[in-house]
Amino acid sequence: MKKLVRIAALASVLALAAACQGYTLVKGGSPVEVGNAMKVSPERSWSKLTSGKYEIWTVDGPILQQILFASGVEDGEKLFPTDAQTPKTLPEFKKGMTELEITELYRDTLVQLGGTQFEIQEIAPKTIAGKQGFRFEFTFATKEGLQKNGIAEAVLAEDKLYFVAYTGAKLHYYPKNLPDAEQVMGSVEIL
Q1: What is the DSSP string of 103-162?
Q2: In what order do the strands lie in the sheet with 131-141?
Q3: Cβ-Cβ contacts under 8 Å for 53 (sequence gap 6 or more)
Q4: Strand pairing of 24-26 and 46-51?
Q5: Among 61, 72, 152, 160, which lies 20 to 30 A Cα-Cα from 190?
Q6: pTM of the model
Q7: What totals of helices (H) and strands (E) does the chain contain, helices first?
Q8: Which CATH architecture has domain 23-190?
């Protein structure tokens, strides 16, 4: 069977890290703690995989659409969880990074995991959890050519990075759950 593209490796890494527990249900309608560092209040239910400060939420499967949470990433840590199969050269977060550098950190990580054609559409300031952060929109493709759209929001607090990205297949899945993803992203609180 053909191996999944490396861009989907994040889901595999989380699945391996959470092999004993697998997906769990995030019930909509009440606040949920994410990675012991953030809280969100989803209106709808999602399925999630957890690996420490990293979580992936999905409705239809992580290749079709997902929300990635990286909660309280510290200096020298990677933006995605890693395991023995993850490239050792993934870039690391450095405290003091600018908005553009954090955007490039995300782009470079996706590219090393197999993403192609990454393009930033827009970067804009945004207040997140009462702090000055930013949001960017982007597009990319998997090695097999699946076109994806995405939005990401990031904020720095006490030299830690709080990062949330929603990605989905450009046709159908991205627009289908975009309102739900934006609702979740809009409810982020830092603990």
Answers
A1: HHHHHHHHHHTT-EEEEEEEEEEEEETTEEEEEEEEEEE-TT--EEEEEEEEEEETTEEE
A2: 24-26, 46-51, 54-58, 65-73, 160-169, 147-157, 131-141, 116-128
A3: 35, 36, 37, 70, 71, 72, 73
A4: antiparallel
A5: 61
A6: 0.84
A7: 3, 11
A8: 3-Layer(aba) Sandwich (3.40)
* CB-count exposure of residue 122 (10 Å: 0-12, 13-18, 19+): exposed
172 C-beta neighbours (distance < 10 Å), count = 12
Least confident of 16-25, 93-102, 111-120, 121-130: 16-25
Strand 189-190's sheet: what is its strand order?
32-34, 38-40, 189-190
Residue 5, pLDDT above cutoff 50: no
- Pairwise CA distance, residues 156 & 163, whole Å: 9
User: Residues with Cβ < 8 Å from 10, sequence gap 6 or more?
Assistant: 56, 62, 68, 80, 81, 113
Token duo for residue 69: 């949470």
Q: Regarding beta strands 147-157 and 189-190, do their DSSP bridges make them parallel or antiparallel, or are they unpaired? A: unpaired
19: CB partners within 8 A, 6+ apart: none
